[in-house]
Give the backbone structure.
Amino acid sequence: MPILLFATFAPHLLAGSESIVPTHYGWHLVDALFATMMATALIYLLLLVRRTRRLKQELELRARAEESVARLIRFDSISGLPNRGSMLDAIAKTIAQAGPDERTSVLWIDLDRFRPINDLHGHACGDHALKTIGSRLEQLCENRAFAARISGDEFACVLTHRSDTNTIEQLAHDLLREISRPIQFRNGVVQLTASIGIAGTPSCPADGERLLRAAAFAGERSMRSGPGKFAFFEPEMDAAMNDRAALEIDMRAGIQRGEFIPYFQPIVSLRSGKLHGFECLARWRHPTRGFVSPDVFIPIAEDVGLIQDLSYAILSAACREAREWPAELTLSVNISPLQLTDSWLPERILRTLCETGFPAQRLIVEITESRLVGDFEAARAILTSLRNAGVQIALDDFGTGYSGLKHLRELQFNRVKIDRSFVENIETQENRAIIASILRLSEGLKLTVTAEGVEDARQAAALEALGCPLAQGYLFGRPGDARSALEHARAALARHAPRLPQAHRASADPIPATRIPAPRLFAAKG
């Protein structure tokens, strides 16, 4: 703009006089030009200041955003503690700074029975509990260890200490004590316990991932011995941990290769002995290990995120086999509680039914009571979609959970299954009373009842006398492969079964009978 103004007024300055002294009119033009240039410069200066302020604000906002992102990357949003990535960095740093007479130990902390807090009190209370536990760990470990939340209800600590002291045991005791202090909610009080696994150098490799895995493995052993305890990782556990890691790798390939196959256990009428259907149970036919027990591979599948792929592979194979059965027989399948967090579960199941041509009305989806998710609205939406398509919903292991009536009321089940623990000791007056109560409740709600784990005629007679309509167990047949199930179905429906059928011939189920509680997805049942 100054150049443009000068170009405008210059001819007037130069024209009209040859004198080197400017005219009066020329001075006025110079003053006007100077004033215009000063005003323009002032405007540019103001614009520059304003732009500079904006740039400064943008840089401050960007810095705060980057700081927020960096915190999200390094810290847990609920507990406020560092996260898994920060813990791995802290382990590496701690190992590098440890002296020659010091060792590095990692404590894996797993809260016992944390899920019921979400179920009974809601997720807001669950988050409050996690935040409270995180604050307690942070205060306790302030000058002693580095604490972090790994995932879910799992935390960890890392520290260096002399090998000839009991520092690590004392910290474990202190952690268990602090965690067990009551937590106050607006609508009640809850008291948690924890199981702790401890792993450290030099018994474990000086590697963050390996130390965390070893501590978690020791924590699982501790959990089996009861809540509120801790256990050390022993060198002999290393082989078992490596074996589990190898199974994780084999599972991924095994699902693609079709190594996981459905086995079927019959469900019969106690009064007539008539076959009503089969329950599907997963089996892993490993190419080198032979058959691997569901007690082994189901927990691994849930831990490493393969349970979805495994479930749909088994469901698809089972539906294809069940198409060959007589049309009145049903197929029951268990789904993992983890699958109830998948809003696409109904669509995935219905797509499998469409692809295999198996009728939805013959499918029964079983959900285990003791591990139902806390988000009832999501669960209700999923189960409602399945029921609307004709799929029946059964509540498995009924009587062992903490809010069975709530589940029955809010999730509207079609069937219930009496847990084997009541059937096993049916001769006791208490268990008979419980079974009778379940049957009366189910009759009032118009729910079909099946008793699990019926292994002898005495149990079957007692259940029939109480009015239980259906049962399954070794008395009526062991789990068998698809060919065995088809032969069983054709033979059972071709004859009139006796009132109390004799034990079905043993099929080639490679998994022996066991009293150990079964996993929750496609569990091995008697």
